[in-house]
Amino acid sequence: MIIEKSRDLMISWLCVGFFTHAAMTNDQREVLFQSQKEDKAAELVDYAKTLYEEQDQQLKRRFPLAKPLREQAALRLEFGNGSRITGIPGPTRSAIPAACKNSSWYCLSSAL
After folding, report:
1. N or C terminus: fewer CB in 10 A for the chain?
2. 49 — phi, psi (to 5°)?
3. Which residues of 71-88 are buried (b: 16+ CB within 10 A; e: fewer)?
4. What is the pLDDT of residues 38-89, one digit of tens each?
């Protein structure tokens, strides 16, 4: 699926929200966020961490993390159900990275 976007529409937040929910509620899922630079890939993972941190405590109990947020790597968010979100830098619009072959979902952000 391709979504046209502009910075004003907050489509990145929408996509991160969708994929964070999917990783939280489905066991053993691998989600990859790819952007042109490592800091932008980390920013997408930070969006997911923010969404998790700001949700209701009842949801946090139902969908726990593998370890506390402060102990998670900058480019990763791991859930207790074995799912994880990983940010990767790399070229865009060329070849999809080999890591994507084993992923459940892949989100490419070339405009961030």
Report:
1. N
2. -65, -40
3. ebeebebbbebebbbbbb
4. 998 899 999 999 999 999 999 999 999 999 999 999 999 999 999 999 998 8
Q: Check if the beta carbon of residue 2 is closer than 8 Å to that of residue 77.
A: no
Instruction: Please provide the distance, in angstroms rounded to a whole number, between the alpha carbons at the two ends of the chain.
Output: 18
3-state secondary structure of 43: helix
How many other CB atoms are found less than 10 A from the CB of residue 101? Answer: 8
- % of the chain at pLDDT higher than 70: 72
Q: Which two tokens stand for residue 1?
A: 């699926």
Q: What residues are paired with 32 via a beta bridge?
A: 86, 106
| Residue 10, φ and ψ in degrees, nearest 5 | 60, 35
pLDDT at residue 10 is higher than 90: no
2: tokens are 């391709």
Helix axes 11-25, 38-54, angle to 10 degrees: 60
Task: Identify the bridge partners of residue 109 per DSSP, sorted by sequence position.
Answer: 35
